[in-house]
């Protein structure tokens, strides 16, 4: 039951994968073909209707004369009354499912259109939209126009007299239902073909899907048996010889089963060998452990005596070593103190030199700042003089403006003779205004310069005060450096004396330590050898015990491995 459901589910999915894309493509093709067919049929119908309308116009053009309309509403062509010969119009539609109409102006005068009672539809008007297009000497075409309660595919061609004037139009139309019926019949045939194609594709897909599903279910059964430890699986030669992916899967499954069978057989053989080796190793580990215990007890007695002797010598060595460490520390400290004294002496000399250079640099800085201050004072005085000159320019501009005003007044009094003088006076007035504007601009710049100069002088005064304070502190520091340098020299002399005495003590201490060290080394080597022997025996004993434990574990592991190998069936 479960296998059949699996087979049906896989087959159904494969069939859907094969049929659904085919069905989708068929539906899309049907829709596209229907739209294209409708568009093509409507285009061909319009071309045919246009040819029919032109044929009607050509047929009546053989009658000499122009189209006229008499008082009774009859349409004439030359000497012939076309209205009483209206049945001649039907000859143009024989063998065609179409209608034609001859319009004089907007009014239908000759037509093959008939109402429900069989009466021809005449003396009715066409739409204004159609008439506007035709009267502009253009052909009007449409695929949907309502005439006598029906939709028509129609074409309207201009009707002209011999002089070329448009006096009406010729209608040729075909009911849209006829075109739709033709298209529907073709669509139905296409649908039947598509359904037949889909049915064939579904049958082929179903056969192939059932074959594939059967193969997949068989592979699933084999994998289930593998998961249960059954390696007695036979793959059919038919599946192995296939040249597609199914064949590759069958060959891979066969190789997997053979490989697993070889591995399991080797594992079973290895488990048996491992079990036998574990038993032998366990027996050997027990014998080695007993012998190692006896050796360990004998070595331990020897080690206790050596350790006791080494401890007594080590105690004396520690006392001597402590005394030597104290002397050695004194020597090192004195050496460090001497080195520090030398470094301080060198640093003091370098600091004195640096202070002298700093003092000289500070003197140069003071002189440079003094020169800058003098230059700023001179610049400030120059700015004040420029301000005075700008005030003088402003006064001159005012006088010039007044002079220009007086000149203008005098030229006005002089009348025509003073006109040239008036032009000069006007130019002088402009020049005075420009001079006054320039003087104002200069005065603003001078004011800004005076403010900045005052600020600069204030900052320069603060800088000079800071330089004076720096010089005072520099002199004080230089004096203190001299005192420190003298103290360093005295300290260095005392340190040299202490170092000489400490070196003598260190030499004596070294000779005593060498004697004690040799004695201690011999004792320690004896104790160490005994301890190492004891430790080695203990490690050997521990290793043998671990080996025994490992042998037991190995035996248990081999038994467990044998039980697990029983899961596989060869």
Topology of helices and strands:
Elements: H1 2-61, E1 67-69, E2 75-77, E3 80-81, E4 99-104, E5 107-111, H2 128-135, E6 140-147, E7 150-160, E8 166-175, H3 176-227, H4 237-240, H5 245-414, H6 419-565
Antiparallel strand pairs: 1-2, 2-3, 4-5, 4-8, 6-7, 7-8
What's this, in brief?
By secondary structure, this protein is of the alpha+beta class. 77% of the residues lie in helices and 8% in strands. The protein is flat, with a radius of gyration of 65 Å.
Polypeptide structure, described:
This protein is 77% helix and 8% strand. With 570 residues, it is an alpha+beta fold. It has a five-stranded antiparallel β-sheet. It has a three-stranded antiparallel β-sheet with strand order 1-2-3, with no helix packed on it. Strand 6 and strand 7 form a beta hairpin. It is flat, with a radius of gyration of 65 Å. 12% of the residues are buried. Residues 1-7 have low confidence and may be disordered.
Keywords:
disordered N terminus, 3-stranded antiparallel beta sheet, 6 helices, 570 residues, 77% helix, flat, alpha+beta
Biggest beta-sheet profile? 5 strands, antiparallel
Mass-distribution shape: flat
Instruction: Please state the oligomeric state of the protein chains shown.
Output: single chain
What's the average pLDDT?
76
Distance between the termini: 29 Å
Task: Report the total helices.
Answer: 6
């Amino acid at each position: 039951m479960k296998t059949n459901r699996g087979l049906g589910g896989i087959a159904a999915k494969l069939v859907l994968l094969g049929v659904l894309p085919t069905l989708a493509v068929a539906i899309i093709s049907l829709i596209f073909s229907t739209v294209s067919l409708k568009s093509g049929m409507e285009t061909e119908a319009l071309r045919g209707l246009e040819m029919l309308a032109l044929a009607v116009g050509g047929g009546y053009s053989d009658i000499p004369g122009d189209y006229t309309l008499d008082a009774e509403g009859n349409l004439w062509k030359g000497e012939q009354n076309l209205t009483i010969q209206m049945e001649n119009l039907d000859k143009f539609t024989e063998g065609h499912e179409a209608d034609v109409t001859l319009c004089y102006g907007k009014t239908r005068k000759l037509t093959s259109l008939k109402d429900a009672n069989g009466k021809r539809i005449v003396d009715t008007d066409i739409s204004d939209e159609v008439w506007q297009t035709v009267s502009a000497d253009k052909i009007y075409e449409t695929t949907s126009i309502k005439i006598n309660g029906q939709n028509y595919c129609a074409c309207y061609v201009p009707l002209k007299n011999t002089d070329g004037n448009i006096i009406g139009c010729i209608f040729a139309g075909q009911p849209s239902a006829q075109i739709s019926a033709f298209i529907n019949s073709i669509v139905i045939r296409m649908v039947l073909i598509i359904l037949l194609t889909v049915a064939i594709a579904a049958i082929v897909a179903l056969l192939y899907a059932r074959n594939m599903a059967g193969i997949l279910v068989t592979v699933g059964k084999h994998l289930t048996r593998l998961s249960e430890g059954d390696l007695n699986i036979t793959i059919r030669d038919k599946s192995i010889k296939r040249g597609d992916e199914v064949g590759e899967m069958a060959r891979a499954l066969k190789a997997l089963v053979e490989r697993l069978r070889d591995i399991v057989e080797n594992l079973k053989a290895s488990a048996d060998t491992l079990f036998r080796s574990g038993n032998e190793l366990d027996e050997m580990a027990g014998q080695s452990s007993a012998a190692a215990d006896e050796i360990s007890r004998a070595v331990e007695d020897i080690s206790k005596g050596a350790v006791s002797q080494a401890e007594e010598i080590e105690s004396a060595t520690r006392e001597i070593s402590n005394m030597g460490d104290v002397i050695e520390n004194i020597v090192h400290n004195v050496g460090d103190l001497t080195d520090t004294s030398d470094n301080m002496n060198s640093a003091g000399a370098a600091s004195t030199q640096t202070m002298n250079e700093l003092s000289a640099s500070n003197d140069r800085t003071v002189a440079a700042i003094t020169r800058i201050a003098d230059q700023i004072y001179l610049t400030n005085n120059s700015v004040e003089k420029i301000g005075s000159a700008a005030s003088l320019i402003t006064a001159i501009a005012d006088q010039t403006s007044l002079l220009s005003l007086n000149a203008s007044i005098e030229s006005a009094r002089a009348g025509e003779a003073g006109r040239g003088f008036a032009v000069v006076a006007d130019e002088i007035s402009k020049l005075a205004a420009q001079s006054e504007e320039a003087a104002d601009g200069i005065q603003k710049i001078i004011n800004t310069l005076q403010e900045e100069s005052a600020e600069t002088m204030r900052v320069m005064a603060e800088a000079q005060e800071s330089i004076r304070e720096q010089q005072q502190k520099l002199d004080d520091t230089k004096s203190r450096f001299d005192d420190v340098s003298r103290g360093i020299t005295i300290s260095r002399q005392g340190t040299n004396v202490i170092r000489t005495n400490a070196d003598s003590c260190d030499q004596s201490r070294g000779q005593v330590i060498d004697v004690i060290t040799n004695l201690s080394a011999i004792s320690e080597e004896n104790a160490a050898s005994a301890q190492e022997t004891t430790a080695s025996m203990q490690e050997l004993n521990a290793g043998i015990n671990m080996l025994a434990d490992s042998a037991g574990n190995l035996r248990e592991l081999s038994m467990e491995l044998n039980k697990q190998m029983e899961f596989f069936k060869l």
